[in-house]
Amino acid sequence: MRIAIVDDEKIWRDCITDALHRLDTNREMEIELFTSGEEYLKSETKYDISLIDIEMSGMDGFATILKAKEHNPDGIYMILTTHLEMSRMGYRVNAFRYIDKTKLEELDEAMKSADILLQRNQKITVDVIGDGPRKIALKNIIYVETEKHYVLIHLRQTTIKCKNTLHEVENMLKNNCFARCHNAYIVNLDEIVHMRDGIIYLSNDKDIDV
Question: What angle do CA 41, 46, 47 make, to 5 degrees?
Fold first, then answer.
């Protein structure tokens, strides 16, 4: 997990770094520090998570996030502040979280939620009939089903037919938010609206058997 901390005050860069290290029991974080939005953007690195202070000399946090999203739209952006009243302006950048720098215990929940989101952003590669290998983001898959000798992957905007077996796709989806609910179906648990009488109702208005 690559993480950027962007803050023009050393005391806060150090405090946030220490807080993250306490959470990183598995030593999976690579943390880089930046003293300004301009310095951060100049790196052109695609960080998984960026924690960015709102109030900085030069480019402020909101402008920094807007610019960063042009280069890394899939990154997760958290706003750091000691003035939470400013967070109402966060709609401009659709920030993932607002972290009060005086209450860094909030980082625990924020990082756990970000880790789940990062897993959803992962991609698998399937062999699409007539098109060859294609990468698909897990978050775009609603459900998977078998059709004769092929597999249909139902995405948010379309459905693709693959040469892969259902077992192969199931293995690709392991350890993520998917479940084999039927011999013929794998479902994205996030896309379930409700279940009744052995039928799952999905976000795309389809229903499948359990």
Answer: 95
205 φψ region: left (φ > 0), alpha (ψ -120 to 50), beta (else): left
Alpha helices by DSSP H, listed for the chain, are 10-23, 37-43, 61-71, 106-121, 166-173
Digit-coded pLDDT (tens) for 76-108: 999 998 876 666 666 667 788 888 888 888 899
Rounded Cα distance between 75 and 63, Å, is 15
**Measured between alpha carbons, how far is residue 44 from residues 9, 39, 122, 157, 165 in Å?**
22, 9, 21, 31, 39
More confident residue, 205 or 119: 205
Q: What is the pLDDT of residues 154-185, one digit of tens each?
A: 998 899 999 999 999 999 998 678 999 999 99
Strand, helix or coil for residue 177: coil
Contacts of 153 (CB under 8 A, 6+ apart): 126, 136, 141, 144, 159, 160, 162, 169
Say which residues have a Cβ less than 8 Å from residue 61's Cβ, sequence separation at least 6: 6, 37, 52, 53, 54, 55, 79, 80, 81
pLDDT tens-place string over residues 2-27: 999 999 999 999 999 999 999 887 77
Of 8, 5, 16, nearest in space to 101 by CA: 16
pLDDT tens digits for range 40-58: 999 989 999 999 999 898 9
